[in-house]
Queue: 2 jobs
Job 1
Amino acid sequence: MSQLAEQKENLIAPGHNACAGCGLVLAARLVLNAAGPDVIVTNATGCLEVTSTNYPYSAWRVPWIHSLFENASAVASGIEASLKAQGKLGKVKVIAQGGDGATADIGMMCLSGMWERGHDILYVCYDNEAYMNTGIQRSSLTPFDASTSTSPSGKASLGNPTLKKDMPAIALAHRLPYVATASVAYPQDLEKKVKKALSITGPKYLQIHSPCPLGWGFKTALTIKSAKLAVQTGLYPLFEYENGQLISVRKIAKPQPVEAYLKDQLRFRHLFKNEEGKKQIEKIQELANQNIKKYGLTG
Amino acid sequence: MKKFWEGSQGVAEAVKLCNPEVISAYPITPQTHIVERLSQMVADGDLKSEFINVESEFSAASVILGASAAGSRAYSATTSQGLLLMAEVLFNLAGMRLPVVITCANRSVSAPINIWNDQQDAMTVRDSGIIQFFAEDNQEVYDLHLQAYKMAEDPDVSLPVIVNMDGFILTHAYEPIETITQKEADEFLPPYSPDRKLDPAQPGTFGVVADPNWYMETRYAMQKSQEAAKRVIKKITREFKQKFGRFQGDLIETYRIEGAETVVVAMGSLVGTLKDLIDEERDNGKKIGVLKVRCFRPFPEEEIREALKDVENILVFEKAFCLGLGGILYHEIRSALYMSSCRPNLKCFVVGLGGRDIPKTSLKKTLDSFGPNLPDLNFVDLKEEQIKEHLYVPVS
Amino acid sequence: MWLQPGKLSNNCKKFMPRNKTYIAEPGSSVGNRTGSWRTEKPVFLNKKCTDCKLCIILCPDGVVFAVNKVYQANLDFCKGCGICAEECPTKDIQMVREVK
């Protein structure tokens, strides 16, 4: 039976200032509950950190440290080294966390260093696809054509012109023993992946799709539905790599057209206004199709 | 036992005595010999330490931040560009009150790039809340590292410490060093045991958000700890003298300052040259002495004021200056003397930037041509023809 | 330590030790009653509930709990996002506008 529902006490307490319906804090709560209390967590600057640690209130029931925006992985490396020197590393696990901006942009240097050195740390990237905490600015994990405050749609722009940086591929290039993607829409799958990652020694990477009602522009109750559609369209494939081999994917019984996912988010609303937008939707559908093919998501 | 060691070897041996559990290393001239030697000690099993080769100085500081927060004694070494790159983390280390020790092999800052000695790098982080020492010679460097950990970890202080040593001049110079045994070091410096650390047995949230209702008091508390550090430094240097018989000053050191009409002030290895010069001058009957500022942060205002009272002429020699203002040590001393009744002839002499050699003759010339009508900011051995030939300098 | 929802007002008195810098105590956020945010609250009908526990799992704030299979939300903290009602497979939870 999944441990999630039996959890006696959430390791992230309520009373934090995350938005109602926040996908990120849900993902974090699921990760921590799956990891258990014998962890030390480092966190990058971002929504999760700012909403949960406004002194004197802290939502964290585990030892937790925040240093700077870009160094959650480097601080975690130091903690792991300290635990190793104290002989506690097997018993206490180290988890480093950050949003998509902290992971794929400003934190790339420290992250790459931590992975290359092979520290026994699980890195969790909460992918809400923009710099949400500072007001929904574009990051390198912002999807194609999404409208953000620094890549807005307008008469001369269709939103973010670049594709999502393929962080799992970068993780695989560092020869990580375990690389996976997950989504808040599938909490049992997320829990399994966290537990499996923590059972492996070495650097691990887990990227969790975490919808943001405020930043993406949908009603707070629809967080899970939105996350589910991202997976069901093939735009956010859920997979697991172990030692460089693709060992599992979440199959899609009946792939949804990308419109189903895009139409209820304000950040993609501009694509439904004219012919040009329609062409962009076709491009996005092509991206989904490529994922379906690459990972064998159907059949 | 006396050993004939390169300065950087002295540092490595001193750090070894302190038994840090985590060392992070990134190469940058001229500190690289320090981390290379530490790395060899770990490789040979002589030092039980987690030696982390990081991918930048920023990560070097972040690694020791994490290690210290998790309860380990931690160490790193850097200089110049590296110190500037880790500046963000240095403020973080001080604000989180983590007692790490960093050796800075003082080197000039880019641009233009220059790998030789001056003290501009350490000066740029003087506001960070980190305690800063400047060592005169390699014996002092060796002794300072043991004292530094004891100071940093004192419960009234709990601030990181930077031990500054002039790059190349001290790091690469071979000097005889009186060494300390591991047993003696362990008696002087007990193992690190913080009252709070990252531990599932006693969880806590470190690095919180402090909104306008909460932030200011943390900075006040740090100021109070810096002030307490003055007392702690005096206590620890006395303890060190008692145990090992060596005393190189606590916050300051005065040399032949009794009855002096003129005092030269400096930090770092330059003090050694000045002491030689002052010996000659005293032999010629001049009433002259040296004031060595050993601890730059916390700034020993009262001690300097006390040492310089009744002195007519003060020459502050500096290996850095604040562009747009003037001498740094000079202005701090000037402010300190504002509170005293005397009004000496106080001038600043910027010297040796970018590693330019400082011969005793240049210092003597400066001394001889000193007078009350000099400008406040002077440059020793400035090459006027070079300026005319190679640079555009606007008329003031 | 099992934190009993409903006894939270007593837990607001927390011991804050003096550290060198601010170190927040674990779970002290329970002093911040985010229940004041919401405009709608979840009403658990407990009629068609199949005990799937999705509401407990999917609540971002983790405030849904069950006592003897009777499901409820901790109204001191519930922000009224509506995810539990939206995701309940038997539609046994309704979001009701709160008038204060």
Job 2
Amino acid sequence: MSRLISLALLLALAGCSIAPFKTGSPSSTTAGARSTGTGSAPVLTTPTDVQQPAPEQVIEAPAPAQIPKERPRTPAATLSPASRALVSQAQAQRKKGDLPGATVSLERALRIEPNNPLLWIEMGRLRMDQRNYPQAENMGRKALAMAVGDDVSQASAWQLIGDSYKARGKNPQAEAAYEKSRALVPR
Amino acid sequence: MARKKLSAGMRKRLQRGFAVLALLLLVAAIAVVAVLDRRVTAQFEGRRWTLPARVYAQPIDLYAGQQLSAKRFADELERLGYLAAAKPDRPGTYRQLGNQVNVFVREFRFADGLQPARSLRLGFAGESIAGIEDARGAEVPVVRLDPLLIGSIFPMHGEDRIVVAPHEVPPLLPEALKAVEDRAFETHHGVNPLAILRALFVNVRAGQVEQGGSTLTQQLVKSYFLDNRRTLRRKAEEAVMAVILESRFEKADIMNAYINEIWLGQDGNRAVHGFGLASQFYFGKPLAELGLHEVALLVAIARGPSYYNPRRHPERALERRNLVLRVLVDQDVVSDEDAARAAKKPLGVAESGTKGGSFYPAFLDLVRRQLRRDYEESDLTEVGLTVFSTLDPLLQQKAEAALEGELERLDASGREAAKDLEGVVVVTTPQTGEVAAVVGGRRASFAGFNRALDARRPIGSLAKPIVYLAALETGRYTPVSFLADEPVDLKLPSGDRWKPQNFDKQLRGQVTLVRALTQSLNLPTVRLGLDVGLDDVARTFEDLGLEERPAELPSMLLGATNLSPLEVAQMYNTLANGGFRSQLRAVRAVVNEGGEALKAPELAVAEAASPEAVYTLERMMIEVMERGTGRAAKRQLPAGLVVAGKTGTSNDYRDSWFAGFSGSHLVVAWVGHDDNSPTGLTGTTGGLAVWSRLMGSIVTSSFEPMLPEDLEHRWVDYFSGLETSPYCDGSAVSLPFRVGTLLEPNPACPPGTEEGLFDLGSPEANPAGEPAPDSGFP
């Protein structure tokens, strides 16, 4: 797992030196910057709203031999200090059974970083506590949509989706979701 | 003798008569007192239960990295009634020193609990917050400011109030009330005969009513029963009830009841009661933070809220305030110097529309309607709920200004049809589905017909993206699929013929899908919609969040469907949110008087369309802004800001719409006449102008959707649809295709190899994104 993260980080760093996508209209250079993706070349960008990796993680970079050629990867999403504080507050509130309080804290974090898949997954976990399983799944799907190329976040989103199926007694779907999660991040 | 006997008998009977009469009178008096007792006691004790729900705007979250300059932060503090002070050492004060702001944040009970008052130091770096520290220098990762009170949900023609506990009342206020209104308050038993006599004497001498002899207790009773008849019986009843109150309750309770009860102003239908609300209504800050000059003004207003209305009669109010200050000196309540200093201060009344009060009728109407799904009207108007809404006051202010500015410009344009137009603006934050601002008309603070929610008008070309989404969902189209721009002649079920035309009445033969949408061509859109099927298109409207499925008529494809701006916002919010539908919310949380969280609309998402179809549509809607009907917006937007949107114009130019979004805001703007007469405006000249004025005036981020894994970007020619090099005379456009889609190459300007692309350097090196002259690229 940590190997995979470091791999993603390495790729991300490599990606920074590669020219991002270019668009036709002169003023829309940002339009394609995040949405780069071609079938054969590892074109990588660093989304502006995803945190840069912490320096200590970079040290243990493995050999780049296993770069998956077919899909562009982005570094695993991390939380900003503000949302990290709010997420731990929400987790403490959940532990106490204060679900409305946890909702308030998580929504605050979501307003600060609406594009962070980790926060949507966290929101899905809260919906699990509230026994709102369909919404737990939907939060997972929302996280998936914004975690393109981020295997770690995608894996936890599938884990959440699997849990929500399982809670509703949909075991085959749950297994399929867990399988997707394992395929992304073997454990 | 006989006379004597008679008179003795008479006397006996008279005596007995008197006794009976006295007894009857006593019984009657006791009965009257008992009745009055019941009435006034019930009123006194039950009073605290009829509290309108208080509605707050969204609080500002402060954290390092937030886009907020020191100047704008200070503006926000002013809006919240914070006082600039040399030493910010009590709640509600702040000090700005260049790039640093020290602020003593007020205590506030949020939906998730109490946030205590605390002293903070904020450092700023240019346009953002660099860091936040508390008084001991410890880093604070995130903290909320107390939110702006934006109004209450009170019954029609009803009383509104904010009840304050004794500890929330500045000690000066009761002292001032006693000094000015009722000097013997501490000793009398409800009435003050001496004061009545004195008042009588003064009034007789003056020939008019100059002085009231009522005690505070009598005034309280009078206010309870809202009866202004000055009959003797009324006065007597009031006096009796005052005595009853005094015998049953403590002086301190009566004073607190008075402070919360008394009428202190009028705001349309809404009667402003109590000093707690009056403080917000006139000064935009909590009662506890009022200075001497402000307390004196409220005491002055208490004597006659209409006559001494500080907004309407500032001189009169100022004179009375200074009279109050002199009385306070005479009665040794304040020192001569303090009073003299206070008398030099201006009234300090907040302008309507910026602070306090109920200045957001269209938004509050939405809050009320959303709450009515879960609450009875009486819950909202009586039990003292606290409602945390999604209103962003700054955005609301900018939206009002954008609409007003643009409509005034049109007034002055000299075009008769463009005069006296009305308009609506709705702003949402797409990812969370929150309604951040609602402007219901050009006079935004005027409560009336709520156009944002109730004006249903044909949406014109705003329907097109929905038709294109339905088409992309079938998987049978790419952005460069060809559509015929040729005449359409349809026989409708009604027997009528329908022959729509393009806006410019031109025909272009075969056009690409992206061009048809970007230039808002009607004929190819109708052909596309008919090919996809009206039922599919109607279902897509529903999927995007429209509650009522539109009538399946071909004219639906060109936006004959009547929708309110809020309904449009709901559908476009789903487009702006990557195809995830979130029911728009104006309320985040509701708590009861005990601080307990109650039912409120929840943040919920649902996948309404495939990510691939939505992404492709979004990319084409970006092209609308780059080269299509929305390009006029560029001039007003910051360079490089990526936005997506669509214009809409209904038949005969009756409605001018624009709906579009950045990465963080969706804005829907409508301009038209209430009587539905033509405006002479297209979506570009009306709705888009309002939209871009607003988008250009707010802090917002680029729209950068995530490319789904199954799609890749390819360069194609906008007109011919051929795959091409990015550097072909301006008609090359980068659009998404399913990975591996076969595209015909453009022989005149064939696509370059990917290796070649990377050799061109990053956009930073070449900010214009134009080819370097010597790139050697074909």
